[in-house]
C-alpha cells in the first residue's frame, strides 16, 4: 500500500500581537519557512509538485492566494503551483491532509503543506468587513445565535461544569510547560529564527507569548470578556499571534532517492462536524473518527496535541475521551505559545513531530477545533 511520510517540519517562532513579527509581510514570513525547508532538506524547489497553504483571513496582506505569492517571494521557480485553503483554525492541518491524500493517491510524489497568519496586520474578523457570512436561514435555524467562539467557549464551560479556577489552573499550566520546554531546548531544532544580520526585522529566536510566573492568582485580576458573570477571559484563551510553518510530504521511496530520512508516517486523517452553537466540541467526534480509521485506541497514542483555543476546549475533550492528561499538550499550547490561525495546524504538527522524535513516541494525535463546528484530527506514526 502506498504511504505518505513527512521528512521535515519547520516553523517560525510565534510572535505576539504587535510584536517582533508585526512588521513582516505574511508572504515574506511564509517564504522564510519555505526556504528553511529547502535549506534543511537540500531539495530542488522545482521538484515540488504543489504547495498547499493554510490561511484564514484572506484579505489585505493575505489576499490573492497567499500560498502562490509566498513561493514567489521565496524565489522558487515560477513553475511551482500553490493553493490557499481555509478551514478556519484547522486550515494548515487541512493543508497537510490534502497534501498527504495527494501523495497517497499517487497523483503527487512531493508536496509542501503549511500555513501563515499575521494577525497583527490582518486582524481577526477582517474578512467579514461589510458583510455577514451567515445566511438568514442559518440564523433562523439556530435561533439567531451570534456564532461567537468566545460565547461557545462559555457554553462549553457551563455544560461540563468547569469553574473559572479550573480554567485558570489549566491556563497557568500551559505557560509553565511552555517555559520549561523553552528552557530545555525542546523547540530549538524545529525553529527557523526570523531576522538575521542585516535584516530590518527585529530578531525573534523563540516564541514570544510565554508569560513566566503566570498563576491562577495573577489571572484572577482579568475580567470575563464574553459575559459579565462568565469564566472566559484573555488569560485562559489563545493568544492573537503571528507565525508560519511548513512540512515536506513525500513517499518513502522518493525520500530514499533524495537521501532524506522520514520523521513520521501519515497514518490517518479525519474531519468531523458538530453542534455549531457549542462550535468547539468537534475534536471529540473527530478523535473517535480518526482512531477508527487508523485502527488504534486512545491508549495507543503517546502524545495528544489538542489546540487550546480556550481552556474549556481541551478540558471538555479530556472529560469526554478519558485520555491521560499528562499526554496532552506536554510542551504547553496556544494559551502560552499563541494561535496564528492559518499556521496553527502546521505549528502544532511540527511541535508534535519533534517531540515524538525526541521521546521516541510511536503515535501522535493532533486535533483542532474550528469555527462553524468542525474539527480536524490527524494521527502520525514515528518512522524508525
Q: Please tell me the overall pLDDT.
A: 96
Radius of gyration: 19 Å
Helix content: 25-40%
Proportion of beta-strand residues: 15-25%
Q: How are helices and strands ordered from N to C?
A: EEHEHEHEHHHHEHEHEHHHEE
- Cα-to-Cα separation, first versus last residue: 18 Å
Number of helices: 12
Shape: globular
Q: Residue ranges: pLDDT <50 for 5 or more in a row?
A: none
Characterise the protein shown here.
The protein has 384 residues and is of the alpha/beta class. 35% of the residues lie in helices and 18% in strands. The protein is built from twelve helices and ten strands. Strands 1, 2, 3, 4, 5, 6, 7, 8, 9 and 10 form a ten-stranded mixed beta sheet that branches. Helix 2 links the parallel strand 3 and strand 4. Helix 1 crosses helix 2. It is globular, with a radius of gyration of 19 Å. The model has no long low-confidence stretch (mean pLDDT 96).
Amino acid at each position: 500500500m502506498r504511504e505518505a511520510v513527512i521528512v521535515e517540519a519547520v516553523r517560525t517562532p510565534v510572535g505576539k500581537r504587535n510584536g517582533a513579527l508585526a512588521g513582516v509581510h505574511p508572504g515574506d514570513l511564509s517564504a522564510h519557512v519555505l526556504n528553511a525547508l529547502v535549506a534543511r532538506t537540500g531539495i530542488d524547489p522545482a521538484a515540488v509538485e504543489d504547495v498547499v497553504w493554510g490561511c484564514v483571513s484572506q484579505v489585505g496582506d493575505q489576499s490573492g492566494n497567499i500560498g502562490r505569492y509566498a513561493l514567489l517571494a521565496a524565489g522558487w521557480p515560477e513553475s511551482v503551483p500553490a493553493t490557499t485553503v481555509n478551514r478556519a483554525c484547522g486550515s494548515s492541518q487541512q493543508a497537510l491532509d490534502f497534501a498527504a491524500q495527494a501523495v497517497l493517491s499517487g497523483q503527487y510524489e512531493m508536496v509542501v503543506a503549511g500555513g501563515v497568519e499575521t494577525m497583527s496586520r490582518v486582524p481577526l474578523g477582517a474578512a467579514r468587513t461589510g458583510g455577514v457570512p451567515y445566511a438568514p436561514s442559518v440564523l433562523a435555524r439556530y435561533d439567531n445565535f451570534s456564532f461567537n467562539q468566545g460565547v461557545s467557549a462559555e457554553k462549553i464551560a457551563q455544560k461540563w461544569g468547569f469553574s473559572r479556577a479550573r480554567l485558570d489552573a489549566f491556563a497557568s499550566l500551559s505557560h509553565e510547560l511552555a517555559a520549561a520546554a523553552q528552557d530545555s531546548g525542546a523547540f530549538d531544532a524545529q525553529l527557523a529564527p526570523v531576522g538575521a544580520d542585516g535584516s530590518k526585522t527585529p530578531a525573534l529566536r523563540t516564541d514570544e507569548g510565554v508569560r513566566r510566573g503566570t498563576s491562577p492568582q495573577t489571572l484572577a485580576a482579568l475580567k470575563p470578556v464574553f459575559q459579565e458573570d462568565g469564566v472566559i477571559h484573555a488569560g485562559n484563551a489563545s493568544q492573537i499571534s503571528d507565525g508560519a510553518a511548513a512540512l515536506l510530504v513525500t513517499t518513502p521511496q522518493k525520500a530514499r532517492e533524495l537521501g532524506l530520512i522520514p520523521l513520521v508516517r501519515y497514518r490517518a486523517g479525519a474531519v468531523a462536524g458538530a453542534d455549531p452553537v457549542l462550535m468547539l466540541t468537534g475534536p471529540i467526534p473527530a478523535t473517535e473518527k480518526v482512531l477508527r480509521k487508523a485502527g488504534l485506541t486512545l491508549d495507543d497514542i503517546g502524545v495528544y496535541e489538542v489546540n487550546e483555543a480556550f481552556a474549556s476546549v481541551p478540558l471538555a475533550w479530556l472529560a469526554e475521551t478519558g485520555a491521560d492528561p499528562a499526554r496532552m499538550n506536554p510542551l504547553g499550547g496556544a494559551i502560552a505559545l499563541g494561535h496564528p490561525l492559518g499556521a496553527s495546524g502546521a505549528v502544532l504538527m511540527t511541535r508534535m513531530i519533534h517531540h515524538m522524535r525526541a521521546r521516541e513516541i510511536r503515535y501522535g494525535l493532533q486535533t483542532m477545533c474550528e469555527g462553524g463546528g468542525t474539527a480536524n484530527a490527524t494521527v502520525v506514526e514515528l518512522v524508525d
